[in-house]
Amino acid sequence: MKLLLGEFIGTYIMLSLGLVTSVIINYFLFPKGQNRFITGFYWGISILLPSLLTTFFFGTAEYNPVVSLTLAVNHQIHWWLMIGEVITQILGAWLASLTVKAVWSKWLASLPLNLNFYATVPRDVNNWKRNFKWEIIGTFLIIVNTEMQNDINAQWWIKTLFSSLLMMIIISIVAPITGAAFNPTRDLVPRFFFSRTYDKRLSQWRYAVVPFLGPIIGAILGIIFSVIFSHLVYKS
Question: In angstroms, rounded to a whole number, what is the distance separating the alpha carbons of residues 30 and 231?
């Protein structure tokens, strides 16, 4: 129960800090075009702060269902706990969507309605192949890092800081291309919220398969790579 509470609080804080805010900051700093480094840095901070908080108080910082899936496959958590984590991540993402709407409602009303405030929006929504590839690569790197953390003898805050820095770098590279989801919950729940609250026609549900399946495939490949790598290392 303690872990699930941490998952809920962490997901809520991460998306409350990240959704809408990163776009608005970019808009006012760079009105003619968003700066990918600002986006990556801000999302890195949005991940780092709740990760430090929930790891310290609850012993968990997993706000991504594909990471929970990875831990279940590796028998690090029970499958029932994985299901509970996914449910709490969904609830945290929905509450975060409600929160940012309430906080930024006046600002949002003054700007053109944009799905990018909530869900991930690619540079070219029709280039599914490229977007799918980058979602897979980004998630693959995240899962490999998660797997390797177990073999690193370091303080928990050092591991958390490194993981957040890695996310910051990956998001900075991939955000201009796909919007950088790497997390089905981070995209689908706010997209559904946008669809129900604002305009279903602008929600781009046909594209949503990319930030949904891309991270899942990236996680599977990351698990396979980590198993093979660990087998080769320990065998040698």
Answer: 48
Strands (E) in the chain, as ranges, are: none
Q: How far apart are CA 93 and CA 115, in angstroms?
A: 16
DSSP 90-157: HHHHHHHHHHHHHHHHHHHHTS---GGGTS---SSTT-HHHHHHHHHHHHHHHHHHHHHHTT--S-HH
Q: How far apart are CA 226 and CA 46, in angstroms?
A: 27
Helix or strand (DSSP H, E) at 194: helix 184-197
Query: What size, in residues, is the chain?
Result: 236
Cβ(39)–Cβ(22) below 8 Å: yes
88, 78 Cβ separation under 8 angstroms: no
On average, the pLDDT of the chain sits at: 88
SS3 42: helix
pLDDT of 167 strictly over 70: yes
Which residues, at least 6 apart from 134, have a Cβ–Cβ distance to it below 8 Å?
174, 177, 178, 214
